[in-house]
């Protein structure tokens, strides 16, 4: 193969994909999404009827609901037969349901939700020709065959991809190898030999591991890049995927850095933003919850961060002048700095380092960090948490993502969310009052999907608390116990009755500090 023959058109690359292929895609929603080559595959199918019956692997979601279609380019009957994803495109209910979710709920594709870290582990074990992933991550959750075994619909449930094994007197989950035939990855620059650098990317994700898994089994590796440079012009230390692993290069000069962002050099660590340039959290109920969650931090800790209210915690520290008091670690790989919110979630500015996602997940799965800040959709009597499935509005959640990997061995977990959905709340600097109860409580008898197992947490001795606008709840052997109450809240009416008795009051119930309600900056001592 000569030096320039790796550079091909999108159509030529799509033409190389065979019927029945297993394709692994590197992406995290809009971040690092090789959207144009996915579009080319969908376009080829529309005109030729090929490739057919594809299986796709997505450690993190490909595409979003805001202009980067990603997996939706492939969400066509006949083209896609199976999808195994750590997460799926998600968004608000006022937007149309993504095509992949439509296929999922109508049983037109076998769909699985496998924790992101496990999916990266699967690639490494496939690459090394080991006998599949053996893990305790996911025990007693929807990942476990005693529940759904990762299946997201009926057609997937009929084709199990995980089993329980007893080894050495312990119970493990076993994920047999799924060998990918094609890897579709993304970078910023390729030289003519296929060496890839990531200088404009907000994360490395897992492209290297995915490419090795495919190369070691004689498959095809396609890299979408922004630009091509001459052979020998890239600094070897900057090359993240070496050219001998890459077969084809396709060029999209307009590829977005992430959702709704063409290019921001602070996201890729090329410049450092002044700390004063970051916006503070807007005053309101969610900020009050984030403030109370932040009180669980200690200076010098390393903390993991998830989507939702929890994503506001770094802004609470910023407002208090404590923006560098802890080190944040997020699953896309950024470590340190300021995790971003909104469309740029999954990215960080002023990061200390960018870890490849597979290594970040190894760190998470082993519980090396101090505390994790995550959100909840619903909590049940056993302390189980659901963030991965909502039957009535499935695409409001992305699935589990890295949630199961992160919580598996975390020493301490702080879940944040609102006690009820749709309650009319009055917030003043002195009190928070419930004017009108919500449509339904988020404290239920049994969650729809067990993304986090309260029972296993108690077995492992994990420290688990749930922070809401009304109270702080601890997971105890006696169930859910409210230990702190917000000023203005009626404990009997707004907690016990509102939860239908599912949350009990501690005998030594105390009031949270009024400073949480302040419109001004709250002094925060870590």
TrEMBL record:
It catalyses: an acyl-CoA + acetate = a carboxylate + acetyl-CoA. The keyword Transferase applies. Keywords: Transferase. This is Acetate CoA-transferase YdiF. GO terms for molecular function: transferase activity. Its EC number is 2.8.3.8. Pfam families: CoA_trans. Belongs to the 3-oxoacid CoA-transferase family. CoA transferase having broad substrate specificity for short-chain acyl-CoA thioesters with the activity decreasing when the length of the carboxylic acid chain exceeds four carbons. It is an enzyme of class 2 (transferase).
């Amino acid at each position: 193969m000569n030096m320039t023959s790796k550079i091909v058109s999108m159509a030529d690359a799509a033409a190389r994909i065979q019927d029945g292929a297993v394709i692994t895609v590197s992406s995290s929603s809009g971040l690092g999404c090789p959207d144009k080559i996915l579009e080319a595959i969908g376009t080829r199918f529309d005109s030729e009827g090929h490739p057919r019956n594809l299986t796709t692997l997505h450690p993190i979601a490909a595409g979003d609901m805001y202009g980067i279609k990603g997996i939706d380019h492939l969400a066509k009957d006949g083209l896609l037969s199976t999808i195994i994803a750590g997460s799926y495109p998600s968004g608000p209910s006022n937007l149309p349901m993504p095509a992949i979710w439509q296929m999922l709920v109508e049983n037109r594709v076998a769909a699985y939700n496998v924790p992101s870290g496990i999916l990266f582990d699967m690639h490494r074990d496939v690459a090394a020709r080991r006998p599949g992933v053996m893990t305790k991550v996911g025990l007693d959750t929807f990942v476990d065959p005693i529940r759904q075994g990762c299946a997201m619909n009926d057609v997937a449930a009929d084709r199990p991809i995980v089993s329980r094994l007893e080894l050495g007197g312990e119970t493990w989950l076993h994920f047999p190898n799924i060998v990918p035939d094609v890897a579709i990855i993304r970078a910023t620059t390729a030289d003519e030999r296929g060496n890839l650098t990531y200088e404009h990317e907000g994360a490395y994700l897992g492209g290297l591991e995915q490419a090795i898994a495919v190369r070691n089994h004689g498959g095809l590796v396609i890299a979408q890049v922004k630009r091509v440079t001459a052979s020998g012009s890239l600094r070897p230390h900057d090359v993240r995927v070496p050219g001998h692993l890459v077969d084809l290069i396709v060029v999209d000069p307009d590829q977005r850095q992430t959702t709704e962002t063409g290019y921001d050099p602070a996201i890729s660590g090329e410049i450092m933003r002044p700390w004063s340039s970051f916006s503070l959290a807007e005053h309101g109920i969610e900020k009050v919850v984030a403030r109370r969650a932040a009180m669980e931090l200690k200076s010098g800790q390393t903390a993991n961060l998830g989507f939702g209210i929890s994503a506001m915690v770094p802004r609470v520290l910023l407002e208090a002048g404590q923006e560098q008091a802890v080190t944040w670690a997020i699953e896309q790989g950024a470590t340190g700095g300021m995790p971003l919110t909104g469309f740029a979630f999954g990215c960080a500015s002023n990061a200390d380092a960018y870890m490849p996602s597979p290594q970040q997940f190894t760190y998470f799965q082993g519980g090396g960090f101090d505390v994790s800040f995550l959100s909840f959709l619903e909590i049940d009597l056993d302390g189980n948490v659901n963030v991965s499935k909502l039957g009535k509005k499935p695409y409001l959640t992305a699935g589990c993502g890295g949630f199961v990997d992160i919580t598996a061995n975390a020493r301490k977990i702080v879940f944040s969310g609102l006690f009820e959905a749709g309650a009319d709340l009055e917030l003043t600097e002195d009190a928070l009052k419930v004017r009108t109860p919500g449509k339904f409580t988020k404290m239920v008898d049994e969650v729809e999907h067990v993304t986090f197992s309260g029972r296993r947490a108690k077995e492992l001795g994990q420290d688990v608390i749930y922070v809401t606008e009304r109270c702080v709840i601890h997971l105890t052997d006696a169930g859910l116990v409210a230990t702190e109450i917000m000023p203005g809240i009626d404990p009997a009416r707004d907690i016990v009755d509102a939860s239908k008795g599912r949350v009990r009051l501690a005998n030594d119930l105390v009031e949270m500090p009024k400073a949480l309600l302040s419109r001004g900056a709250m002094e925060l001592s870590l």
